[in-house]
Amino acid sequence: MADAQIKAKVNQKLIESGEYERLSQYLRQKLIENGWYEQVTELASDTLRAQENPNFEKLVDLVEPEALALVPEFVKVELLSMIKRFLEGIVD
Amino acid sequence: MSTVIVSRAPPSNNANNKRASPSPRSSASLSSSSKRKLSVSGGPSDPLGNRAVARKTVPGEASSAHESHGFSSTMKSNGTTNGDSTGSPKSNAKFSSGGGIMSGINVDRGLVPQAIGCVHVKQLLSSPSQELALKSYRQAVRVALELRDRTTDISAFQVRRCRTCNELLTTTFMCLQCPSVGCKKSKHAEAHSRDVGHIFGIDSRSGNIYCFACKDYVYNYTLEKIRGEKEDLLEAKKLKKRHQMTSELSLDDKQLVEQNSKAPPCQAGLRGFQNMGSTCFMSVILQSLIHNPIIRNDFLSGSHDSKRCQRENCLGCRIDEIFTEFFTSPTTTGYGPALLLTTSWKTRRSLAGYSEQDAHEFLQFILDQLHATSDAKSSSDVDYCGCIVHRAFCGQLQSDIVCPNCRNVTVTIDPLMDLSLELRDRKSDASRILSLQQCLEKFTSPEKLETKYMCSFCSTRQEVTKQLTIKRLPLVLSIQLKRFEHALKSNKIDDHVPFPMQLDMTPYTTNSRSKKRYVYELFGVVCHQGKINTGHYTCSMKNREGLWFNFDDAMVTLSSEKQVLKSRAYLLFYIIKELS
């Protein structure tokens, strides 16, 4: 259970320091800049139009894998390194 | 003793199904594919909605009065419940409840969920538990939306955490009927709904309702209204405005309005212009004004009263007349702007005749005229002019000239009505066409001027560096891509210049390291086909519902985002995202 405790502590520090908000904003900005929102919106619209009985869960099942794959590699790398840096700063 | 019967009509009864559908805005795909008729009924219930549940069905026996709104009451003799039941809460039907608000409802898993709301929400809101449900929902929405913006407050996350696994950073659902909160990812909310029979979860960040029976987010009109009002309230608080909801008119006033106003026709404002002899350059600019939310709202609110205006040859009146015509007349044939034409010619001789003109020049002309004929303009400072044209289009451009010798910076600020961008990077690869963002980057990057200037500070002649940045962004950004080169030979650059639907202008502002992002949304594109002197203008515009249309003189056709992004743009119109 030590893992769960550590995770909870990390989340707490993430939120209270404002880092979570910064990371979220950064991710949002990068995704906009790289056209990810547009691509996924189009994908979701097309998928939805093709569904006879539109359903959220079905939509997620169909769109989520591709949406995740469409995230530019460099964004994932950058975000991971930002998280790493944050962790190094709070863990001793 | 009561019976619960779920009946299904035979598939051949399609026509009936359409009429039976209660949703006023069923999407076409749903109503046409709906093959089953649902009738859900139960016996009388106590004030909390609890029913004595006996789930044995008696073929052919009609149930008593309590029927779901909008559904037909016929029962089929082959109606069966979803499996057997003996009245225990954990019977075969997954979401039946032993004692909560939704007790007595058996759900057929194969039923078609509705586009707006769902049968379960509808049932809930027409049951005696309605008031309780609305009250709970209001509270939950308050919690969700007020906590959403407290992004560094750990307690805000604690309130919304999953009570099973204690996860903070994940989507959770608050139960409508009890204090339970469960997460989506590990299916703890779903488990709760299964175990206790509470099928409604409220998304703890958006306040949207999730129905675990339908496995879908459902948007019921009444509940959406509550959620929407709360969102508006919070938004108004943010903008520090006094929140004014729809002003309550007196009965007399309401009657007066009804008797003297005309409802706008379907797809109001969607109409083409007749080409009256190479006037397509006008048509496209007029469409860009009609689809400009700020200009449109201003004219439709009656800010330029063409019936009372005393000016001669007033272009403001002509534009007002066009708005009136487009938004009140049910005609869909092309509009012939004869009066606008003659007024333009009388105002500027160079426009007279039937030769093709440049659309960008016409844009500048008409904006200038709208400013001149506006009652709201200020005579002196154009930077802070109150006319709608300046309020919409006018920003500020800052020019910094740096002397390499003494590092003195001369700052000049000029009004900015539109941006004209070079498409090629002459320094590096002159043959490569840049994207819109790259053009903007080039426009705002420091440039060493070739001619030497005398620096007034250190009194030496130097090769100064000049940099342009946008000091104040306008609400509406109009961009001209300089496709027409007038070098040794007049040449048109016809290549496709990539541009985005959403444009972040922050990097090109004077304070480019600002944390606040200035994001714009595209609403209009003007294209030119053909050669430099002869050619044809068409445009694509986005309407109020977010649909894109192509305008080719009088012909208006439905387009798509994909198509628009492929077009060879000449003029681009963006509006700040909050207003789009």
From TrEMBL, chain A:
GO biological process terms, semicolon-separated: chromatin organization; mRNA export from nucleus; protein transport; transcription elongation by RNA polymerase II
Compartments it resides in: Nucleus, Nucleoplasm; Cytoplasm, P-body
GO molecular function: transcription coactivator activity
Cytoplasm found in the keyword field: yes
Keywords per UniProt: Activator, Chromatin regulator, Cytoplasm, mRNA transport, Nucleus, Protein transport, Transcription, Transcription regulation, Translocation, Transport
Main location: nucleus
Pfam family, one: EnY2
GO CC, alphabetical: DUBm complex; nuclear pore; nucleoplasm; P-body; SAGA complex; transcription export complex 2
Subunit field text: Component of the nuclear pore complex (NPC)-associated TREX-2 complex (transcription and export complex 2), composed of at least SUS1, SAC3, THP1, SEM1, and CDC31. TREX-2 contains 2 SUS1 chains. The TREX-2 complex interacts with the nucleoporin NUP1. Component of the 1.8 MDa SAGA transcription coactivator-HAT complex. SAGA is built of 5 distinct domains with specialized functions. Within the SAGA complex, SUS1, SGF11, SGF73 and UBP8 form an additional subcomplex of SAGA called the DUB module (deubiquitination module). Interacts directly with THP1, SAC3, SGF11, and with the RNA polymerase II.
Biological function: Involved in mRNA export coupled transcription activation by association with both the TREX-2 and the SAGA complexes. At the promoters, SAGA is required for recruitment of the basal transcription machinery. It influences RNA polymerase II transcriptional activity through different activities such as TBP interaction and promoter selectivity, interaction with transcription activators, and chromatin modification through histone acetylation and deubiquitination.
PANTHER family: ENHANCER OF YELLOW 2 TRANSCRIPTION FACTOR
Record-stated family: Belongs to the ENY2 family.
Name of the protein in question: Transcription and mRNA export factor SUS1
UniProt organism field: Lipomyces starkeyi NRRL Y-11557
TrEMBL record, chain B:
InterPro entries xref list: Papain-like_cys_pep_sf, Peptidase_C19_UCH, Ub_carboxyl-term_hydrolase, USP, USP_CS, Znf_RING/FYVE/PHD, Znf_UBP
Composition skew (Polar residues), residue ranges: 1-19, 70-95
Gene Ontology terms: cellular component: nucleus
GO MF: cysteine-type deubiquitinase activity; zinc ion binding
Domain UBP-type span(s) in chain numbering: 116-237
PROSITE patterns reported for this sequence: USP_1, USP_2, USP_3, ZF_UBP
Enzyme Commission numbers on file: 3.4.19.12
Region called Disordered, residue ranges: 1-95
Main subcellular localisation: nucleus
Enzyme class: hydrolase
Subcellular location: Nucleus
Residue spans of biased composition, Low complexity class: 20-33
Catalysed reaction, written as an equation: Thiol-dependent hydrolysis of ester, thioester, amide, peptide and isopeptide bonds formed by the C-terminal Gly of ubiquitin (a 76-residue protein attached to proteins as an intracellular targeting signal)
SMART domains in UniProt: ZnF_UBP
Gene Ontology BP term (one): proteolysis
UniProt keyword terms in alphabetical order: Hydrolase, Metal-binding, Nucleus, Protease, Thiol protease, Transcription, Transcription regulation, Ubl conjugation pathway, Zinc, Zinc-finger
Chain ranges of the USP domain: 271-577
Family designation: Belongs to the peptidase C19 family. UBP8 subfamily.
Name of this protein: Ubiquitin carboxyl-terminal hydrolase
Phylogenetic lineage: Eukaryota, Fungi, Dikarya, Ascomycota, Saccharomycotina
